[in-house]
């Protein structure tokens, strides 16, 4: 496999929506509203300050992607880069697709002088946790709380 990583374009919106829907179902058992999801994905392209998507391809075939968003840290005087909406098509998993995507995010984050790379992972998703640890990431000492609105 010869992977290339590129910024996503509006032409990728259908694939990004399919991947996000599949990821939510696989990891959390959630059924996302397709119309809301499409507006959310499109919203990144309409307002680029929200973040950016990257897509991994092999011979022009899209195999996966992810979203990067930023959070300002006054403590660190820099942005935390959050990796979100990670998805790799099942037939390409364990083939280095996420590793290639992560390497590109890390390269861009270092170039932008980001404070750190962060992501959420389901507490039970041991395989993903091992993948992230293998890339040099460590569990954070923060627990996350949420109130749905």
TrEMBL record:
This is GNAT family N-acetyltransferase. Residues 3-149 form the N-acetyltransferase domain. Keywords: Acyltransferase, Transferase. InterPro entries: Acyl_CoA_acyltransferase (IPR016181), Bact_Acetyltransf (IPR050832), GNAT_dom (IPR000182). It comes from Dyella agri. The keyword Transferase applies. The keyword Transferase applies. Pfam families: Acetyltransf_1 (PF00583).
